[in-house]
Design brief:
- The chain has helices at about 10-30, 110-115, 155-160, 185-200, 360-365, 385-400, and strands at about 40-45, 50-55, 60-65, 80-90, 95-100, 120-130, 130-135, 140-145, 165-175, 180, 205-215, 220-225, 230, 255-260, 265-270, 290-300, 305-310, 315-320, 340-350, 355-360, 380, 380-385.
- The protein is of the alpha+beta class.
- It folds into four domains: about 30-100, Beta Barrel (OB fold (Dihydrolipoamide Acetyltransferase, E2P)), CATH 2.40.50.140; about 110-185, OB fold (Dihydrolipoamide Acetyltransferase, E2P), CATH 2.40.50.140; about 205-275, OB fold (Dihydrolipoamide Acetyltransferase, E2P); about 280-365, Beta Barrel (OB fold (Dihydrolipoamide Acetyltransferase, E2P)).
- About 20% of the residues lie in helices and about 35% in strands.
- The strands form five sheets. A five-stranded mixed beta barrel has the order 1-2-3-5-4. A five-stranded antiparallel beta sheet has the order 8-7-6-9-10. Strands 13-12-11-14-15 form a five-stranded antiparallel beta sheet, with no helix packed on it.
- The protein is elongated.
Length: about 400
């Protein structure tokens, strides 16, 4: 059997790395746990009353199993899952943790500890009072939550009454007779955690899910969880959007592409149209030079009319193509916005994304009948000119 030989450098390097790891583990174990400190722990065992946690300390952490149940009373965690918890106390060799202060047995002393340590508390919004809401905390203790501290955005009282939420105590005085709480602080902390994660993963061009939080004339604000950005009206659709409220609504969930990221100035922009198929891919294949198509006048300018062939595909009908050979001052003399037309594509510039149009020939128009066209004033009695001429002659004969 051959014996492996190591150089002094390799031996020293191994000893150094082992010493570093050993010291790092000691440093971690030696970190003091103070009441209210939030840590990430791993669930080692779940019992009927208590669960045990690996908290990176000499000894295991203990947490009430009831805190791992969801609203329906079902266990929502498993052994090996990670969980965030707050350190409460060290007693009898046990490290006691909690995710929030709750339960009917809690009293003012525990709430005061939660206030001093920054530990969240459970509470139910009971009713609306002057300036905010009355909140029932554990042990039937009453607290006050200002309107501004209920959430990140204003909400109707009817939507909040009866809601069970997590709060942080921002004021505790008069031995618990004056308690002020905030739910917004909890949301801000969660949002900041999401923001930190987004800073590492969010890239321009990514498609993300979000919800609309505000709508303005120039665009809509979209919250993607952690940050809020602007969806400009020009980025909603390839087609022209006249009224943003006709296509978007508050609270609407949608997928948007990340257009621009500016962490330093906290400015972010999104695009909805970048998630849609580009209609210009049809130009040159479906929409061809020399072919005729129905269109709708979308905008009038001094030099001509813009006609929409399909959402996102507009062509220009130059003023020289209007008036049936007669010179006109403005396209509005013969056309109106929203008017339906039959046009022919004369020229396509794919690079500049421009389409030149002309009106369908008069000869072609006379071959087709449309119920939207004005009926001609004619009958078996002759043309309108003949009728007027005959009426004039009749009046002349009477004067004689």
């Amino acid at each position: 059997m051959s014996e492996e030989k190591f150089t002094d450098e390799e031996i020293n390097e191994d000893e150094g790395s082992f010493a570093d790891m050993f010291e790092a583990s000691l440093a971690e174990v030696g970190k003091p746990l103070v009441p209210g400190k939030k840590i990430d722990a791993t669930i080692l065992q779940i019992g009927s009353d208590w669960c045990f946690l690996d908290v990176g300390q000499k000894g295991e952490g203990v947490l009430s199993s009831a805190e791992l149940l969801n609203a329906e009373g079902e266990m929502q965690y498993a052994v090996g899952d990670s969980i965030s918890a707050y350190f409460l106390s060290r007693a009898g060799g046990e490290l006691r943790f909690t995710t929030k202060v709750g339960g009917s047995g809690s009293g003012t002393e525990q709430l005061e500890n939660a206030y001093q340590s920054g530990i969240p508390v459970d509470g139910t919004i009971e009713k609306e009072i002057k300036g905010g809401y009355e909140v029932k905390l554990a042990g039937n203790i009453r607290a006050f939550c200002p309107f501004s501290q209920t959430g990140l955005r204003p909400a109707e009282p009817a939507d909040l009454i009866g809601e069970n939420l997590t709060f942080k105590i921002s004021q505790f005085s008069e031995r618990g007779r004056n308690i002020v709480v905030s739910h917004r602080v909890i949301l801000d902390e969660e949002r900041e955690q999401l923001r930190v994660g987004l800073r590492e993963t969010l890239k321009e061009g990514m498609v993300v899910k979000g919800s609309i939080t505000n709508i303005r004339d120039f665009g809509a604000f979209v919250d993607i969880g952690g940050i809020e950005g602007l969806l400009p009206i020009s980025e909603i659709s390839y087609g022209r959007v006249e009224d943003i409220n006709e296509v978007l609504s508050l609270g609407q969930e949608l997928e948007v592409a990340v257009k621009k990221i500016d962490w330093d100035n906290n400015k972010f922009s999104f695009s909805l149209r970048d998630t849609q198929a580009n209609p210009w891919n049809k130009v040159g294949s479906i929409f061809k030079v020399g072919s005729q198509y129905p269109g709708k006048v979308s905008r009038l300018a001094q030099f001509g009319a813009f006609v929409t062939l399909e959402d996102g595909i507009d062509g220009l009908l130059h003023i020289s193509k209007l008036g049936e050979g007669k010179r006109i001052r403005h396209p509005q003399d013969v056309l109106s916005v929203g008017q339906q037309l039959q046009v022919m594509i004369e020229k396509i510039d794919l690079e500049e994304r421009r389409i030149s149009l002309s009106l369908k020939s008069q000869a072609d128009e006379s071959e087709e009948t449309s119920y939207t066209e004005a009926p001609s004033v004619s009958s078996g009695f002759g043309s309108l000119g003949d009728l007027l001429k005959a009426d004039k002659q009749k009046k002349g004969r009477k004067k004689r």
